[in-house]
Specification:
With 95 residues, the protein is mostly helical. The protein is built from 5 helices and 2 strands. Strands 1-2 form a two-stranded antiparallel ribbon. The radius of gyration is 22 Å and the shape is elongated.
């Protein structure tokens, strides 16, 4: 079973006993990845969350959900077309 990487917005998977995927592990500096693993191991949740945010800021990865939302915004339907389609579906056409 693949596990999700600890870096926010990273879509990589990690092995069970690691905290980072291979891509994030090679790119993050030691002063972020070592305390990140230690904080999780020692169950210091607030420090772990802070270090996750710091790793995300360092990696500067785009949010995959935001990309999907932007793609949906491009495909907007004009209001009059949407209204006409709704009337057609409901059977309320003007004669």
């Amino acid at each position: 079973m693949p596990y999700k990487c600890d870096v926010p917005n990273c879509t990589g998977t990690r092995s069970r006993f690691h905290r980072l995927c291979a891509r994030c592990f090679t790119r993050l500096p030691q002063h972020i990845k070592v305390p990140l693993a230690a904080a999780k191991r020692e169950r210091r949740e607030s420090d772990w969350r802070k270090l996750r945010r710091e790793a995300g800021d360092f990696m500067n990865l785009p949010d995959p959900l935001a990309v999907v939302i932007d793609a949906q915004r491009v495909m907007r339907v004009p209001a009059d077309v949407a209204f006409a389609a709704t009337q057609r579906l409901l059977g309320e056409r003007d004669a």
